[in-house]
Amino acid sequence: xxxxxxxxxxxxxxxxxxxxxxxxxxxxxxxxxxxxxxxxxxxxxxxxxxxxxxxxxxxxxxxxxxxxxxxxxxxxxxxxxxxxxxxxxxxxxxxxxxxxxxxxxxxxxxxxxxxxxxxxxxxxxxxxxxxxxxxxxxxxxxxxxxxxxxxxxxxxxxxxxxxxxxxxxxxxxxxxxxxxxxxxxxxxxxxxxxxxxxxxxxxxxxxxxxxxxxxxxxxxxxxxxxxxxxxxxxxxxxxxxxxxxxxxxxxxxxxxxxxxxxxxxxxxxxxxxxxxxxxxxxxxxxxxxxxxxxxxxxxxxxxxxxxxxxxxxxxxxxxxxxxxxxxxxxxxxxxxxxxxxxxxxxxxxxxxxxxxxxxxxxxxxxxxxxxxxxxxxxxxxxxxxxxxxxxxxxxxxxxxxxxxxxxxxxxxxxxxxxxxxxxxxxxxxxxxxxxxxxxxxxxxxxxxxxxxxxxxxxxxxxxxxxxxxxxxxxxxxxxxxxxxxxxxxxxxxxxxxxxxxxxxxxxxxxxxxxxxxxxxxxxxxxxxxxxxxxxxxxxxxxxxxxxxxxxxxxxxxxxxxxxxxxxxxxxxxxxxxxxxxxxxxxxxxxxxxxxxxxxxxxxxxxxxxxxxxxxxxxxxx
Amino acid sequence: xxxxxxxxxxxxxxxxxxxxxxxxxxxxxxxxxxxxxxxxxxxxxxxxxxxxxxxxxxxxxxxxxxxxxxxxxxxxxxxxxxxxxxxxxxxxxxxxxxxxxxxxxxxxxxxxxxxxxxxxxxxxxxxxxxxxxxxxxxxxxxxxxxxxxxxxxxxxxxxxxxxxxxxxxxxxxxxxxxxxxxxxxxxxxxxxxxxxxxxxxxxxxxxxxxxxxxxxxxxxxxxxxxxxxxxxxxxxxxxxxxxxx
Lengths: 621, 245
Fold this sequence. Notes:
The complex is a heterodimer. Chain A has helices at residues 2-23, 71-79, 88-91, 264-269, 273-276, 287-290, 294-303, 366-376, 391-394, 397-403, 413-417, 431-439, 512-525, 548-570, 575-580, 588-591, 600-612, and strands at 42-46, 107-113, 120-127, 132-137, 155-161, 164-170, 175-178, 182-184, 189-197, 200-208, 217-225, 328-333, 336-340, 346-349, 355-358, 381-385, 426-430, 450-452, 456-461, 464-470, 480-484, 489-491, 537-539.
């Protein structure tokens, strides 16, 4: 009895003090365990009055005023030809935030709470546009590693600050600032603030994009509450070829300085061209001073229509793998994992038969690679597949082979012919891989022990079909891609990466056209789950896991650069003149390098050389 | 034994604490400045990324895209004549309260006194006074009478107070919502919310959410949102006269 009275007194006392503290307006956040947020649940729609001309049609060409584009962003937009949206991979492109809010469609918010604690675990959003679902984690979980896949919605975490929901987003795909060619890169991060006033949300987004913006891009929108639940929630999209006879490697773009509509928006609206070309100064009143002298403004605008000088820029993109001497394991899909941290990416397929490993890295920390594979697979490495000869991908061959075992060879007739049959894993690669490795004096135990010369090598391993497809004359004459068909994962080796231009080795039979053809072959095999997202996953040679969207973007970039170099060659340009023209200016801040093993200059040289002297099909020069 | 003593002591201590708080002399009502939910003072620079082509460059006559005017409003907008405004000494018609916060430039916000916030603009050199005490003193001829409150968000048990600075402005002199003569009348009522948000990189933004209601010229309320970024000082402050063009 006394205990009961004591408990009641304690509860009452605490409640009284709590009430007094609240009445004095002291901050209780963090003590109750409940975030003091404003409820955003319900359905909303973006108010169309503000920036009315930008809804649906996405704005006019060369309407960049008020957007803090840097040179690369402006040149990307000036080269963008709206015909590109007819390309198959572009027809169903998803929407990234904050652009997703600038659309004439419905939007739904709801909460997901832990049923026991009633804590908000996540806020969810569904956009009618592109049927996008977004999760904003409110439980303090960390963001994924840098080499995890990017999505249209990205990875978002949120917190309440006063009457404001603040959201931080990473892992976004390359999307639009505005779908008139102004890009938002996949390196962009986003801070958003949602402030509710009755049936209205004021939304501020701040995009930080080191690739395409010179300053953070901040902007507000208004969302209005739907009092009546709307009926329209779907946005179906499926792609198909729209132009008969179009070449697979055709990607339309405008040459810089020759955009046919560069003045259309400016002239129609009485805006000086200098202002409509955007840049950070156009966000502020200071631009008005620059417009006071029309002749000077016109000269300044003309200078912005082409690369400013001949010096290439280095990428602002971050390396996706921490240089910490460790192996970083990322589950990709099905039975396939990606291992990063020792040169080129390594793929591992696991199952009852034993691990199948695609590429072996640089071999600097093979012991850690082997240990990591040992944690994924209870059976030893049975097969090693080499997608190319490059030391970044074959450097660990000897070590991983020695750590493996191929029981399918032991006891076979091979045992009688080769003393080392079955001793260690079997290494499979195209014959040209072996040839190139021999030329580099690779040790015998590192060479492919099982070579092939046909276009397609196939195996059924760990319960799924595995195909190796030779890609002649891509970065070399020995490249292959590997497709795990049930897991639906493609491993590209050197052909595709997310951190640099492709390392085309013209002396080993590589060429820009073969590289483009290889990317097209990858795109022939990928199937997206929804709006260019998910479905077939792609492990690149370097960088982060992707799906087909990033491969398509890479293809587009290489086709555009090829066409620019080709046009200059047709005009009689020398290699130095091509380099001085900065044919990669719109991609340099994403993929360029001015130092290290693969500079922009070396890439341009490889493009130029292979266009001037293309390799014979399937051979080296 | 120890637990029993502790249980008896807790309510006693709580009652003593309660009595101590209640014994304090009654406080004077807090001033608006003391009750501020957040700090809006300082120099702020307009970031013109919304309705850029209507705000940064004077639109052509008759371009009222995004504003739902009624027939009378359209007639007025179509009759815009900046030369006439200049001749009448009314070049500041697009610098009134309903449009001032959309003008490119900088603003400086200070507490004029404990119950009044003052907003000065370098563009057009306008002054707005936001009164928390019911005063009806206009800041300038184009700025009407602005009444302000710290509006708390309605919330149930357990929530701490949060809210916004809300300002309602009336008694306006007729002016323009946009520089190209899109009109508002003397009966227009402007409702604004001023919210401050802070960025992880240290930047701070002032969000201004506005609604203009004007049955004389608008077929439906005109809703906009604008924002300013905080700047360290007045070094970029550049007073300029109103321009009718």
